[in-house]
Amino acid sequence: MSQPPSPDFTPPDDARESSVQRPSMRRLWAAIFGVSLVVVVGGAFAVSAVGSDAAPPDPSVPVATSVLAPEPKVVPSDFLPEQGAWVGMTSWPRDDDWSRAGIQRRWDEIESAAGETLDIGHAYHRWNEEPLITWREEWNATVGRLSLVSWSQTPVGPVAAGEWDTYIAEQADLVAAFGEPILIRWFWEMDGRQRRALAESPEAWIAAWRHIVGVFRERGVDNAEFVWCPNAWAFDNGNGADWYPGDEWVDWICADGYNWAPGRSNASWDSFTRVFERFYRWAERRGKPIMIAETGAQEREPGEKADWIASIPGELEASFPEIDAIVWFDTPVDHDWWIDTSESSLEAFAGLVQHPYFPGIDLSE
Q1: Which of 203, 198, 208, 202 minimizes the C-alpha distance to 161?
Q2: Contact criterion met (CB below 8 Å) for 303 and 91
Q3: Which domains, and CATH codes, for the chain?
Q4: In a 3-state reduction of DSSP, which class is residue 136?
Q5: Residues of the chain above pLDDT 70, percent
């Protein structure tokens, strides 16, 4: 049985304090590892279960892995749109039916309105409570979506110390057996005050990130790519780059960002460009694929949200040509981010999906 998101999840409450062309990387993965594994499990959509009460597995159980990756990856992602960008969403059932049928019904509603299957299906999985591969990832592969999995946070000290290696290795093997391309976003928004107790410090968080990536690489998982994802406003504040693990440890660079007005007190109505411009200026110099894994806008005056959505393709083309994927946060968490808050917003999202800038994904090869 699927479960609703953890009630302690909210988008970051930290108020924003202030407001080189990379080489071509448009090519498909040359090889996909392993044979698909059909996992018959309940795919719980847990937007951000902290997992801080979880106990590490018994450290006496041996795991054949090392702290660091044997050969850190230094090349850009092999798996990118040939032009433009991909578009996807995170979905929360409108009727709060968290069964498989309820989750799929919400996807069917949006994709039917959009007139086509979205490119990316984004789900959140709890640390040590759900496998990284559930029916949702299997379903995405069946219908032709790329899976983006946000792997929930946990205190980073035990991770870096190797206390979770048995669990991490199990997940690595599960992902390898899945065999389909998959993007993994571990412990996103690590820079925010809400998660600082778990993240501890940039140095501690980076050590844990490198440890997890190292386990996956040592176990030969070549169908997964890791997505590093702070808040976009961390680059307005100037501390976003402090959390970067290094080019050899990151496959995708990402940020989450929202137009917070009118729900957040004193928030200005910010364009997509305003939300992401400083993050992008830093990210484009890294020579990595770039993703927006969470974004959204609320209704204010009639038609404004629709205009905000409709402007995205033009803003990407004019200001953010190296962004390769954008994922809408279709939930009511804290504020009303639903795609269909109005008829005009739903029509605008359908127009975005059908826009030539989003050519669609092909996972057939």
Answers
A1: 208
A2: no
A3: 86-354 (3.20.20.80)
A4: helix
A5: 78
Q: Residue 43 corresponds to which tokens in the numbers above?
A: 């795919």
The tokens of 41 are what? Answer: 């499990």
Rounded to whole angstroms, what are the CA distances from 238 to 125, 241, 262, 282, 304?
30, 8, 25, 11, 30
Q: Is the pTM of this model over 0.70?
A: yes
Q: What CA–CA distance (Å, rounded) separates 358 from 341?
A: 23
Identify the three-state secondary structure at position 21: coil
Tokens of 269: 């109505």
DSSP classification of residue 122: E
Contact 286, 324 (CB under 8 A): no
The Cα 124–Cα 151 span in angstroms is: 6
Predicted local distance difference test score (pLDDT) of residue 38: 34
Rounded distance between C-alpha atoms, residue 334 and residue 331, angstroms: 9
Beta strands 252-259 and 224-228, pairing class: parallel
User: Cis link prior to 262 (omega < 30° from 0)?
Assistant: yes
Q: How far apart are CA 236 and CA 158, in angstroms?
A: 31
Q: 162 vs 134, 189, 209, CA distance in Å?
A: 25, 23, 12
Measure the CA–CA gap between 106 and 95, rounded to whole angstroms. Answer: 9
Q: Where are the alpha helices (DSSP H) in the chain?
A: 100-114, 135-143, 156-160, 165-178, 196-199, 202-218, 233-237, 272-283, 304-310, 312-319, 343-354
- Kind of pairing between the strands at 120-125 and 252-259: unpaired
* 231's tokens: 């808040």
Q: Are 88 and 118 in contact (CB under 8 A)?
A: yes
Where residue 242 falls among pLDDT bands split at 50, 70, 90?
very high
Query: pLDDT grade, residue 365 (50/70/90)?
Result: low
CB neighbour class for 75 (10 Å; exposed up to 12, middle 13-18, buried from 19): exposed
